[in-house]
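Lab manual, section 2.4: Encoding a predicted structure.

Procedure: take the sequence of the chain (259 residues), apply the prediction step described in section 2.3, and record the output as C-alpha cells. A sample record is shown.
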Amino acid sequence: LTAARLADVGYAELEGHQTGHPWLVASKGRLGFSAADTARFTPETRSPLQLPWIAVSTRIAQYRGVGRLTTPEQLYDEELDPSVRASFAAELHTRGLDPASYLYLPVHPWQWDEWIVPLFAPAIADGDIVALHSDGDARLPQQSVRTFANVGRPDRHTVKLPLSILNTLVWRGLPTERTLAAPAVTAWVQGLCEADPFLRDTCRVILLGEVASVAVEHPLYDHLPEAPYQYKEILGAIWREPLPPRLAPGERARTLASL
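Recorded output:
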C-alpha cells in the first residue's frame, strides 16, 4: 500500500503492513513456528483470530488487578459477555467443578498445543486446567506476535499472552513474578504521571497500563533454579488498557515503528 493509503489504516491493522523492525534485523525470527503457523498467527497475515479460553484452578493460578479491577469478577464484567461467562460456568459445572474456584484467561492456540498440553498434562488430567471455547471477539496480533488488540470490541482490553517462540532474540513468555507485579507497577507509574501537572496537563501523557493479570506457576520448572527461563513463563495473561477509547475526536494512533 502507498503511504497515503496506510495513513487511513487503523493502528491495529497497520501492524500487519510493516515489513520489519526499523533497527533490529532479527525482528522476523519466529523460531518455533512452522510455515503454516507463520501463515496463520503473524501480524502480516492480517487475519483476526478468536482466542480460546481456559479455566485454571486457583490452586495453581493467581490474579492481580489495579484498584478498579481488584477482583477477577470486575475484569470479567468488562471482558466477557454474560452469556459467555454463563457458558464457561456451565462447562465447569458439568465436570463437577466450582466456577468460584477458577480463573478464566485466553490462551494462544499454538501455545496450548505445543507447550501447555504437554507440560501441564497432570493439571489438565486432574481438572485444574479446563479447556473452554472462544469468547467470540476478533483479535489481531501486534508486533510482538503474542499481544492481541481486540478489533471486534475496541473498548475491551488488549491481551498479552505467553508464546514460547524465539522472537526478537528472546522467548516471548510471561514470567510468573513479573506477571503478578504488572498491575502494581502500572498503578505506581500512572500515579506518578497523574501527580505531575506538567506530564498530565501540558504534555497530556497517556500511559496504557497493564491493569490485570493471571499467572499460572508450573509446579516443577518454577522451582528448579537450573531450568531455562522459558520453562518458567509458559502460562498466564496480562490485560492492557485499550487505546481507542483514549483518542480525542479526530486523533489517530501510530506506533513509532510505523513512522
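Check your result against the sample. DSSP finds nine helices and eleven strands in the chain.
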